[in-house]
Amino acid sequence: MSYVRCQRCGRPTCPECQRQAAVGVHCVDCVAEAARALPTTRTALGGVRHEGRPIVTLTLIGLCVVSFVLQLVLPDWTVRWLFQPYVAFFEPWRFLTAAFLHSPGQYLHIVFNMVALWFVGPTLENTLGRARYITLYLMSAIGGSVGSVLLATATDSWATTSVGASGAVFGLFGAILVISKRLGGDVRGILVLIGINLALGFVMANIAWQAHVGGLLTGGLLAAAYAYAPPARRKLVAVAAPVALGAVLLVATLLTYASIGAFSL
Questions:
Q1: Which of 5-9, 49-53, 79-83, 157-161 has the lowest mean pLDDT?
Q2: Which UniProt keywords apply (predicted)?
Q3: Of all residues in the chain, what percent are helix, strand and coil, respectively (each to 5)?
Q4: pTM of the full predicted structure?
Q5: 148 catalytic, yes or no?
Q6: Per the residue annotation, which of 26, 102, 109, 212 is the catalytic one?
Q7: Can 264 be counted among the known catalytic residues?
Q8: What is the number of other CB atoms lying within 10 angstroms of the CB of residue 215?
Q9: What is the three-state SS of 206-219?
Q10: I want to staple 201 with a disulfide (CB 3.0 to 4.6 A). Which of 8, 184, 207, 247 is the partner?
Q11: What is the rounded distance in angstroms from the CA atom of residue 45 to the CA atom of residue 233?
Q12: What is the DSSP letter of 162?
C-alpha cells in the first residue's frame, strides 16, 4: 500500500509510478497530461521541434548498417536488392532498396555515406520535422535511381548495377542548399561540398554519378516546395508536393522504358 500521494491530483501512487517534480511527487498520469499541455514548438519552416536525438537519422543509419552486415553474411543479399535499370522494370522495389546497400568490399563506401548523412541529416530533421524529412530522404533515394534510368541509354548503362545511399544523401545536400538559401544562410560552403562530390563522380571509376544528379535534383525540388510554401498551406504542400513529384518521376521513368521497348518484352 502506498502512503505517498500525487501533489497534483491527490491520488496515492506506488514507488514505481512516482515522478519527482519541482514541488513534491507527481504520478505518471499527471506527468503525461502536463506534457501534452505544453505548447508545440515549431521551426521557421513549420516543422515540429523535437528535443533529444535525431531519431529518423539514427534509424536510417541503423538500417544501412544492419543491411551492410547482412550483405557480408548472406551471399545473395546484395544481388536481391541492388539496382539495375533494366531489371528494375520488372522489380520496381529496387528503386528504393538499393539505397540501403553498400559495396561489401569497400568499407569506406558506407563510412563516407553515413558520415555525410549524419552531417546534414539532423539539421534537416529538426528544420523540416520528421515526416517531411523522411519523405525527402526516400524520395531522393528513388530520384537517384530514376536518374540512372533516364541516363541509361546515353551512358550505355542499362545493365550496370549500383548500390548505396549516395542518391539520397545528395538529395539532402540539395535540400540543405535550398533551405539555407531560403533562411538567409551562407551557402558557399554547401556549394563547394556539392561541387567536389559531383566532380568525384565523373573522375573516379565505379561511382554512379547519374544517381547523384537524380537525387540532388529531386531533393532540391522537394525542399523548395517545403521551404517556399505559404505558412497556411504547409500541411497541404507536405502531401501534394511529394505526390506531384512522384508522378513526374513515374511518368519520366515509364516513358524512358517505353523508348527501349520494355513494355513489349
A1: 5-9
A2: Hydrolase, Membrane, Protease, Transmembrane, Transmembrane helix
A3: 65, 5, 30
A4: 0.84
A5: no
A6: 212
A7: no
A8: 32
A9: CCCHHHHHHHHHHH
A10: 207
A11: 11
A12: B
